[in-house]
Amino acid sequence: MTGHIRIVNDPVELVPLLLTFNNPKFKQLYELLDKNWMTEEELAERCESACVASCLSILRKGNLIEEQWRMPKPGEKPSKEFRSTYKTFRANFQCSMIDLADLIYISLSTDENIQKLASHVEDELNSGNTSIADIARKFEVSPLVIKALSKRIPNLDVKGQGLVHVTNNAR
């Protein structure tokens, strides 16, 4: 099987990759999905079950996995199974070093300031402000920072020029 090539045209698309491959449990889960179709339950048996749902959420946001329904045995419920979509990676973007530094920092940092900013961004969205540009102006950061944060926050994502709430089943 040759697999697909993940072509990254927007540097913000690096955030889910960095989040996944910086966490040893997420990396292990990704490697399992690179070899086989597996259900969430099967992944929980092989990995720490507490991290499976959050990892799958990040992989969905990054469009790094595909899913399908597994045919059940008679009398059982069908379940979704997952596998990694891409076998190779290609970057095709240019950005400033400051933007790259921001992306890496947001992806890998456990800094309290990032967590506070993420909380403020969620509060803005909950109050009805969905504009990435408006939120960026309000907190005096670049729109790229807001987009990167939305890739890190499990229940947020970017749609056009705005932020939206997402659920695990919405994809």
Approximate helicity band: 40-55%
Question: Strand order of the main beta sheet, please?
Answer: 2-4-3
Derived structural class = alpha+beta
**Helix count?**
8
Described by strand count, sense and barrel closure, the largest sheet is: 3 strands, antiparallel
Q: Extract low-pLDDT stretches.
A: none
Overall mean confidence score, pLDDT: 89
Structure explained in plain terms:
Helices cover 50% and strands 19% of the residues. The protein is an alpha+beta fold. Helix 2 packs across helix 4, helix 3 packs across helix 4 (49-61) and helix 5 runs parallel beside helix 8 (143-152). The longest helix is centred in the last third of the chain and has 15 residues, at 112-126. The protein starts with a strand and ends in a 6-residue tail after the last strand.
Task: Based on the model shown, name its key terms.
8 helices; 171 residues; alpha+beta; 50% helix; two-stranded parallel sheet; single chain; three-stranded antiparallel sheet
Topology:
Layout: E1 4-8, H1 14-22, H2 24-35, E2 38-39, H3 40-46, H4 49-61, E3 65-70, E4 79-84, E5 86-91, H5 97-108, H6 112-126, H7 132-139, H8 143-152, E6 156-159, E7 162-165
Parallel strand pairs: 1-5
Antiparallel strand pairs: 2-4, 3-4, 6-7
Summarize the structure.
It is globular, with a radius of gyration of 17 Å. The protein has helices at residues 14-22, 24-35, 40-46, 49-61, 97-108, 112-126, 132-139, 143-152; strands at residues 4-8, 38-39, 65-70, 79-84, 86-91, 156-159, 162-165. It has 171 residues and is an alpha+beta fold.
